Amino acid sequence: MRIARFTTGDDPVYGVVSGELDEFGQPDDDAVVTVLAGDPLHVGISPTDQQVPLSAVRLLAPVLPRSKVVGIGRNYAAHAAELGNEVPTEPLMFLKPNTSVVGPGDRVVHPEQSERVDFEGELAVVIGRICRDVPKERWADVVYGYTVGNDVTARDLQKKDGQFTRAKGFDTFCPLGPWIETELDISDLAVRTFLNGETVQDGRTSQLIFDVPTLIAHVSSVMTLLPGDVILTGTPEGVGPMAVGDEVEVFVEGIGNLTNTVVARD
Q1: Cβ atoms < 10 Å from Cβ of 21
Q2: Which of 36, 116, 235, 255 counts the most CB atoms within 10 A of its CB?
Q3: Which residues face 36 on adjacent strands?
Q4: What's the CATH number where 27 sits?
Q5: Do residues 38 and 73 both lie within one domain?
């Protein structure tokens, strides 16, 4: 089931997107959205009799994290190597504020403080219930679904600060979308990023150093996770800079495409 958050010009609502995806992650031309009564994370799936063509809506970030986005660094060996880092012996966690979240088609704002802002395409996990100390074998009990993420990073500030908060925390630095896929085998999915139409990242979730069950167990041993919290699972090799005017598209197999354009700060 694909759950979207969208608007037709009025207040945002949630809906279930019908139709099949092609090999490029694009839905059928005749795909429709069945409007739901309320936020399904909190009231469950309650369809109304209202349907809207997908082509007539503006998709928004499919989830607004209640408290946090938890990022995982260096979770692909080749990515750690390309930045000159050792592979971590346990998941390397950092936080992105929920104010960094934007949706499909939204602009990523290049901050004045940075001279290099990088894309990092990733599989994102959406948490579905309050949880703490989740046993690894029960990880699926707390997952609501999956979406596509771009862990935008001011690489020069990351190096300068020696930690991740500023570099990854700017407004617009966490695009998510296009929707949440609730039924998906995530063991071996393609994760690709395209910069102005050219492939720059091409990895698979089977290459994760720490898989999703391990990440959920590890993160929840440190902090309570709330419904709507997001875990970014890490990015494959090939990260690189985005310039003002660039279009970045992240594709995760079985979910779809997330596209954003980089703009200068007003």
Answers
A1: 18
A2: 235
A3: 47
A4: 2.30.30
A5: no
Together in a domain, 241 and 149: yes
Q: Could you tell me if 127 and 49 lie in one domain?
A: no
Same domain? 157 vs 37: no
pLDDT in tens, 19-57: 888 877 888 888 999 999 999 999 999 999 999 999 999
Q: Tally the residues of the chain.
A: 266
Which string of DSSP letters, residue by residue, matches 200-247? Answer: EEEEEGGGBSS-HHHHHHHHHTTS-B-TT-EEE----S--EEE-TT-E
d(CA 38, CA 48) in angstroms, rounded, equals 10
Nearest-5° Cα angle at 111, 109 to 117: 80
How do residues 119-173 score in pLDDT, each as one tens digit? 999 999 999 999 999 999 999 999 999 999 999 999 999 999 999 999 999 999 9
Q: Residue 159 burial (CB < 10 Å; 0-12/13-18/19+)? A: exposed
Q: What is the pTM of this model?
A: 0.97
Whether 37 and 118 map to the same domain: the answer is no
Q: What is the span of the domain harbouring residue 8?
A: 2-60
